[in-house]
Write a structure and sequence with these properties.
This protein is an alpha/beta fold and 297 residues long. The chain folds into two domains: 78 residues, no CATH class; 196 residues, P-loop containing nucleotide triphosphate hydrolases (Rossmann fold, 3-Layer(aba) Sandwich). Helices cover 45% and strands 15% of the residues. The chain is built from ten helices and eight strands. The chain has a five-stranded parallel sheet with strand order 5-6-7-4-8, sandwiched between helices. The longest helix is centred in the N-terminal third of the chain and has 24 residues. It is elongated. The chain starts with 16 loop residues before the first strand and ends in a 6-residue tail after the last helix. The N terminus is likely disordered. Bound molecules: adenosine-5'-triphosphate, magnesium ion and zinc ion. Magnesium ion binds next to helix 5 and strand 6.
Length: 297
């Protein structure tokens, strides 16, 4: 009998299983009572575990294969670990820095409108997105979402990220959602004298995110001069380049056409992205306009 169990924090037996070690300390009358209860129908089962050694268990209900029962300490530890991972996954989903309307959202919140042709296209895109998320891994394709304002590019990118967390979560998973202008601002903030960060470390950290969404590339350019805008592009390109080296996919949204985007990003970044890229052009009416309420007074 393994005495280590006495110190274990995982000592709450499941209702159908009682560890003899645990029952041994009880007063005799209670043990007697338990044993005399015919409805419990107990059977003694031995387990021999590489980690926890030999254990003896009272199984209080006849299970089909009582003599093949696994070490219950292993099972409790595994259940506790799975619970912990599930909680961490839920915490990550709830804390993603994506627009609040997309926190915890899923594809059931994506409505499909338009004529038959548009509906079929959108259904195809949604199917692809779900499969992409379910099989997310290193070396997976980059995604470029292009199209007019209000067509759901940001929403789709966020739904994909949420689904990746749901389907592929692991304890060290990190998800970053950044507007392109925000990346520039945050890099520039590292140049402040008081900052404990530096731009190289920032770019490396962001590049290493398991999932990275760069939203609104080409929008809200924070630079005043062409030269400064070139520097902004260089920094974005450095992130794309680094992720390419790390074989980590990047999801990008932009109002530019794909060609304008490639031109804007320059050959180096565009070539790397296009080596494995799914280009989704969201050519349908703006959801904001379709569902918006405009009143004239
Ligand atoms: N298919 C859809 N089903 C439900 N809501 C949608 C759909 N498409 C867009 N929306 C909603 O419409 C609004 C605009 O969508 P979103 O911000 O994703 O558009 P966008 O293409 O990123 O626009 P922009 O180019 O201006 O950034 C959001 O509130 C979003 O939740
Ligand atoms: Mg958007
Ligand atoms: Zn064990």
């Amino acid at each position: 009998m393994n005495t280590a169990y006495e110190n274990s924090s995982l000592r709450n037996p499941k209702p159908e299983l009682l560890d003899k070690t645990h029952t041994a300390g009880r007063n005799n009358s209670l043990d007697g009572l338990i044993r005399s209860m015919p409805s419990l129908n107990t059977v003694s089962v031995e387990t021999d575990c590489q980690i926890h050694g030999k254990q003896s268990w009272l199984v209080t209900k006849i299970v089909d294969n009582a003599h093949n029962i696994e070490c219950q300490k292993c099972k409790w530890e595994r259940d506790a670990y799975q619970n912990k991972v599930q909680n961490m996954q839920a915490d990550l989903l709830a804390s993603l820095e994506i627009p609040s309307e997309h926190i915890n959202a899923d594809f059931s919140q994506w409505s499909v409108g338009g004529d038959d042709q548009i509906r079929a296209r959108i259904a195809n895109i949604v199917n692809f997105s779900k499969e992409y998320a379910a099989s997310y891994r290193k070396g997976h394709a980059n995604i470029l979402l292009t199209g007019n304002t209000g067509t759901g590019k940001t929403k789709l990118a966020c739904l994909i990220a949420n689904e990746i967390v749901r389907q592929c979560y692991y304890a060290q998973m990190t998800v970053a959602f950044k507007r392109s202008g925000q990346i520039q601002q945050e890099i520039k903030a590292t140049w402040d004298k008081g900052s404990s960060d530096n731009d190289t470390a920032y770019i490396e950290r962001l590049s290493r995110s398991t999932v990275l969404i760069i939203d609104e590339v080409g929008e809200a350019d924070t630079s005043f001069s062409d030269k400064a805008a070139d520097k902004d592009r260089e920094r974005l390109s450095a992130i794309i380049d680094r992720r390419y080296q790390l074989r980590l996919p990047t999801i990008i949204t932009t109002n530019m056409t794909a060609d304008e985007f490639y031109h804007q990003m320059g050959d180096r970044a565009s070539d790397r992205l296009r080596q494995n890229l799914v280009d989704i052009s969201c050519v349908w009416p703006s959801y904001r306009i379709l569902t918006g309420k405009v009143r004239s007074l």
